[in-house]
């Protein structure tokens, strides 16, 4: 075989080499001495086996089997081709075993990176459901801001990521898995809690706030929304690295905060925080799953992605990948 045939850029080699099913049939005929018995062993009809054998002979340009009323015997050329087929089938079996081992290694672990809101308020339920499907899969979760999550996925340090920011890097593919909105919240004793009318967006833009760090999805969405109203202030009231820390500071009366509705639902219900309506400000955002561009999620990662969406939407989206 020449070097150009080994590379086979146009697929000519694949057209010249018989498929594995035809080689299996030839091996069975050699072993059983009968095309009919070979067909039964392989679970195909005798006419189908005869047609496959004739196609194989036409493809190779030589007679492989000598048929008679007493059975089927290999020709001299058939014996040579059978030996070649044996080697190919052994190599194919090794290939299949190796591929199954790789899939098993892939399915034995799942590395997930997620932004804080998703990691704290959505992923626990998804991962519980995933464990029921893949009890043998070890799952590791790295929580960080959206920028860090995107970097981890792009670098191959996570199999699947979840972000809340406005943009997705070109190195990643993404799918929207849900919608969220940010709320302005204050402790019940804050003056804003007693307002009867929505807070003007310009007033919010001029007020130092309790904020997540730069790079978080929450911060990206808020900064983009406030830019049109002259803000945000250059220096936040406090800049904290977790949603829980920002929420705790707000509950303690340190000042106004802007957090996901998911994160403050319990505090609002228990009246530990009050939501402040803001006029003319859109704080809605998309929650996205991200993965390396051109590499569809597979195994446990694919199943986790399906669990994040409504059943019908998830199936349609995954079929389109």
Automatic annotation (TrEMBL):
Residues 18-75 form the HTH lysR-type domain. Keywords: DNA-binding, Transcription, Transcription regulation. PROSITE patterns: HTH_LYSR (PS50931). The keyword Transcription regulation applies. Belongs to the LysR transcriptional regulatory family. PANTHER family: HTH-TYPE TRANSCRIPTIONAL REGULATOR, HTH-TYPE TRANSCRIPTIONAL REGULATOR CYSL. This is LysR family transcriptional regulator. The lineage of its organism: Bacteria, Bacillati, Actinomycetota, Actinomycetes, Kitasatosporales.
């Amino acid at each position: 075989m020449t070097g150009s045939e080994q590379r086979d850029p146009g697929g000519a080699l694949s057209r010249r080499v018989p498929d594995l099913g035809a080689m299996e049939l030839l091996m069975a005929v050699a072993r059983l001495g009968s095309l009919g018995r070979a067909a039964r062993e392989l679970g195909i009809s005798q006419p189908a086996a005869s047609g496959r054998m004739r196609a194989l002979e036409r493809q190779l340009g030589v007679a492989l089997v000598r048929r008679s009323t007493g059975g089927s015997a290999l020709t001299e050329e058939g014996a040579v081709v059978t030996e070649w087929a044996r080697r190919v089938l052994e190599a194919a079996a090794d290939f299949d075993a190796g591929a199954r081992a790789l899939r098993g290694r892939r399915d034995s672990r799942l590395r997930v990176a997620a932004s804080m809101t998703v990691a704290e308020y959505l992923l626990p339920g998804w991962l519980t459901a995933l464990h029921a499907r893949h009890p043998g899969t070890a799952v590791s979760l790295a929580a960080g801001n959206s920028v860090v999550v995107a970097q981890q996925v792009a670098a191959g340090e996570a199999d699947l990521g979840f972000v809340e920011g406005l943009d997705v890097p070109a190195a990643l593919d993404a799918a929207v898995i849900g919608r969220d909105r940010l709320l302005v919240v204050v402790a019940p004793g804050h003056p804003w809690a007693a307002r009867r009318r929505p807070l003007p967006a310009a007033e919010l833009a001029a007020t130092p706030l309790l904020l997540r760090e730069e790079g978080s999805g929450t911060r990206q969405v808020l900064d983009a929304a406030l830019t049109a109203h002259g803000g945000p202030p250059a220096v936040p009231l406090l800049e904290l690295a977790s949603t829980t820390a920002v929420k705790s500071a707000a509950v303690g009366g340190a000042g106004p905060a802007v957090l996901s509705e998911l994160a403050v639902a319990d505090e609002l219900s228990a009246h530990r925080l009050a939501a402040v309506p803001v006029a003319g400000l859109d704080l809605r955002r998309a929650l996205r799953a991200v993965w390396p561009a051109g590499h569809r999620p597979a195994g446990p990662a694919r199943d986790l992605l399906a669990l994040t969406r409504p059943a019908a939407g998830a199936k349609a989206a995954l079929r389109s990948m």
